[in-house]
Amino acid sequence: MPEIKISIEGLTKIFGKNPSAMLKLVDAGMDKETLLKKHGHVLGLHDINMQLHERNIEVVMGLSGSGKSTLIRHINRLIEPTSGKVMVDGEDVLAMTPGALRNFRQQKTAMVFQKFALLPHRNVLENVAFGLQTQKKEKSFIDHQSRMWLDRVGLKGYENHYPAQLSGGMQQRVGLARALACDADILMMDEAFSALDPLIRSDMQDLLLELQAELHKTIVFITHDLDEALKIGDRIAILNGGKLVQHDTPQQILLNPADDYVDRFVADVNRTRVLLAKSIMVDEKPEQNADSVTCRDDETVDTVLHTLLSEDGSYVIVENSKGKRVGYIDKETLADSVFQIEKKSAA
Amino acid sequence: MESLIVWLSEFPSLSRGELRDFRKGIDQAFREFTQQYGAGLESFFDPLLSFLIWSERMLLAAPWPLVIAAIAGLAWLGSRSLKVVAGVIISLLLIGYFGMWEDTMRTLSIITVCTLVAIAIGIPLGIVMARSNRLQAMINPILDVMQTMPSFVYLIPVVMLLGIGKVPGMMAVIIYALPPVVRLTNLGIRQVDSSVVEAANAFGCNAWQKLVNVQLPLALPSIFAGVNQTIMMSLSMVVIASMIGVTGLGQPVLKAITNQYFSLGLLNGLAIVAIAIIFDRVSQRYGLRLQKHRQGGHHA
């Protein structure tokens, strides 16, 4: 069982003039639309309970207005909740004094923003140094760290450029380096790649995964793009209208959508590139004996499909990384997994 | 019916006697205030006065080529433009050639002192104003009054308080020139990209770090526009302030108006314009240079 890094309990946020009075109405079951029409208050988040695991990439996904950006800002208390609790490493973020909160933000969290939010009057190196300067670290240390991280995100040689001279993707690399340089456990990314071109976005996702394989931070990643969520998320939390609908692994979200909303969300996804052999395999051996092919349990369905078709097999034997046989996939299961014809229970 | 017509055509006002008593009362009260605190206020402004006198003496005592070289040097530091520097030197030479050197030096020193004081008061005030909506709502109407009240009117209490001379003149100039730098500092800070401010918060900046590293640098173009306006307004106030004893280019202009000396007025007026242009070009160029990162373009 992984360690819990961030724990959010009963978090509700109501925007407006008198949120605490509205809290009772919302708790009594008033919905978002009525609250807005009758009382002029906006329900941002309602009764969110979730645990974010250490060393995971935890994706929070939803369409605009679903409250995902509001949610992430509660973790470092850029937004004060109307009610609820936010615990990081067992520490109550909402009980911190302003000084303690600043220390917490400096040391425990770092953030990457959708619109980059770089300082236009500082060059790239000085931008990366921003967090460390705020922490009042020693000059030589700041310089060394900033150059190192700039190198890691692939921007060596751009130290003296100004942000306005860089492309969007490069600017976000600066934003990423600035956050990583802080050496915080928690990296919060608010739609960090949403403003980038598809190809560059894909590059940035790869860069993030590559860095994460080495750094093992707790990453809270906000996105509205399901493909992005499936690609990088260890787990995905889906928000709809300020409520948490489902919080699970990508496999489970594809195989067992919690409700119609999630179902519609995942309908257009290219499932074969996400689903893994181990998620769809069964224990029983198919009856036909001949023409089997072998695959690993962590291969995606489209790889399995390719193997099966190119080697002209009739069913698949699934093995784990140690070569031990762990299950079977027949043609029918494979076909069903491409288009979800009937919902299967948890594998 | 008839009384109604009278009532409608004659505005219901205080009688002459009442009005006189009302004004007398205010004047009396202010006079008493003046008698009580005038001397104290005057000594409060003593350091300012000695600063002004010192800068005036220095400009007047120094050999003129040295002064021109110094001003040209400052213009170069500010603008890094040979064209601007050449303009500065030619204007100053012409001013001296037409016999306005001493008055110009006096005006230059009072403008410099007034602008420095206005900036020293105005930028902190603008910063405080940007931090509180309530303070903004309080200060804004005061700034409106300062800007729109005819300057002759607030010359009266200043003269009553401090008499005729340099200090009341400076007060009048500062009051008149202060609003733009306050307003534009406030506006500039409020218009700083909220996502950058949020980033500063997210990285744990305290209020001072946020102000110095984020808000002021990003508000700089706006603050600079304010300083520029403040300089221009204090220059335009120099003529009016000459009515209460401020020496400099304003006095010959005043003399020219009362005696219909057209050419005297024109020459001194042109000298004021020349100083205004020098200040404007140098400060604008300096502001632009501070913003060099904005004209980035793609080098990548």
Largest sheet of chain A: 6 strands, mixed
Q: Give the end-to-end Cα distance of chain B, rounded to a whole number of Å.
A: 85 Å
CATH superfamily of the domain at 53-108 and 184-269 in chain A: P-loop containing nucleotide triphosphate hydrolases
What's the total count of β strands of chain A? Answer: 13
Spans where pLDDT lies below 50 across 5 or more residues of chain B: none
Approximate strand percentage of chain A: 15-25%
- The percent of residues in helical segments of chain B reads over 70%
CATH architecture of the domain at 53-108 and 184-269 in chain A: 3-Layer(aba) Sandwich
CATH architecture of chain B: Orthogonal Bundle
- CATH fold annotation of the domain at 53-108 and 184-269 in chain A: Rossmann fold
Helices and strands of chain B, in order, run as: HHHHHHHHHHHHH
How would you describe what is shown here?
Chain A has helices at residues 19-27, 32-39, 68-75, 98-107, 124-128, 130-134, 139-152, 168-181, 198-215, 226-232, 250-255, 260-266, 277-280, 301-310, 331-338, and strands at residues 4-15, 42-53, 57-61, 83-88, 91-92, 109-112, 186-190, 218-223, 235-240, 243-248, 292-296, 315-319, 325-330. Chain A is an alpha/beta fold. Among the domains of chain A are: 53-108 and 184-269, P-loop containing nucleotide triphosphate hydrolases (Rossmann fold), CATH 3.40.50.300; 272-338, CBS domain Like (Alpha-Beta Complex). In chain A, the strands form 3 sheets. Chain A has a 6-stranded mixed β-sheet with strand order 6-7-8-3-9-10, sandwiched between helices. In chain A, strands 2-1-4-5 form a 4-stranded antiparallel β-sheet, sandwiched between helices. A 3-stranded mixed β-sheet of chain A has the order 11-12-13. In chain A, strand 7, helix 9 (198-215) and strand 8 form a beta-alpha-beta unit. Chain A starts with a strand and ends in a 9-residue tail after the last helix. Mean pLDDT of chain A is 90; it is low at 341-347. Chain B is an all-alpha fold. Chain B has one domain: MetI-like (MetI-like fold, Orthogonal Bundle). Helix content of chain B is 84%, strand content 0%. Chain B has 13 helices and no strands. In chain B, helix 5 packs antiparallel against helix 13 (262-290), helix 10 (194-202) packs across helix 11 and helix 11 runs parallel beside helix 12 (250-259). The radius of gyration of chain B is 24 Å and the shape is globular. The termini of chain B are far apart. The A-B interface holds A 76, 78, 101-107, 109-111, 113-115, 117-123, 130-131, 133-135, 158, 161-167, 170, 182, 188 and B 193, 195-196, 198-199, 201-206, 209, 213-214, 217-218, 220, 291, 293-294, 296-300.
